[in-house]
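I am still getting used to backbone structure tokens and would like to learn alongside you. Please make up or recall a protein chain and show it to me in full. Would you write everything just below, so we can both look at the same thing?
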Amino acid sequence: MPQAIVVHETGGPEQMHWETVDVGTPGAGEALVRHTVVGLNFIDVYFRTGLYPPPQLPFTPGMEAAGVVEAVGEGVDHIAPGDRVAYAAGPPGAYTEQRVMAADRLVKVPDSISDETAAAMMLKGMTAWYLLRRTYPVKAGDTILVHAAAGGVGLIACQWAKHLGATVIGTVGSPEKAELARAHGCDHPINYNTEDFVERVRELTGGKGVPVVYDSVGQSTFLPSLDCLSPRGILVSFGQSSGPVEPLNVGQLAAKGSLFLTRPTLFHYVAAREDLETAAGELFELVEKGVVTIEVNHRFPLAQAADAHRALEGRQTTGSTVLTLS
């Protein structure tokens, strides 16, 4: 019988238990996947704590993984047993050795990309895709602001935006993270612990501000980010690692320059199979060409996922973190 991380009650990392589970067999439109590597993301913390309501209790966290198809159900023809696949869209459930899931959420992994890289990049990479290519399509000559520039999404977004011809400003929390962000396409890393990032952004843009801010931090950066925008600029609030954003008086958007605000999620951008294939295809192409490098800087055994969560919440990680299976 396979084993999985199971959460019976939302709360801290100690609520994650390594247990034997029954995953069943694939029905129509489903596939059984044997995971080889599982990705770690902040959304996993949100579900574990109950900030995002889990689908039910008990539940297994995790949104992304790579592995091998073991069996498919009726009507599945785009993948077959033995195929290497990855995913990052769908309900939680990735922190497990095996999983039955909707086959239309699975994409084949190119031979040139390892399972570890695939598991580390699917959610973060496709998030960067929709941020830069769909929510606010970045174009050559743009100057943009990326919060948490040394994080998993941040490092990918900096490289991708630089490839698109943008000048990238990024916030980080230490000199070491500043150097890491700079090495991955961030032209102007700002250490928010020693600099006022609003003043620095205004200085770097000659007082104009930026047309877009990509913010996964939330509570501590939300309001200052509005002051970084140029008139009719857009704040893309796609995470809340520092805590939930407080209610906003929408009149502030008018007062600060007829600003736009959006709170997108990856799942709405790849809900259609066609969009999922486009997102994964563009991501795979840039990784294969070396335009985007996926930094896997931390590894934990899946059974020790609680330790990985502690490191992530303690801001002790950079780049991508993966959970390994023996």
Notes: The chain is about 30% helix and 25% strand.
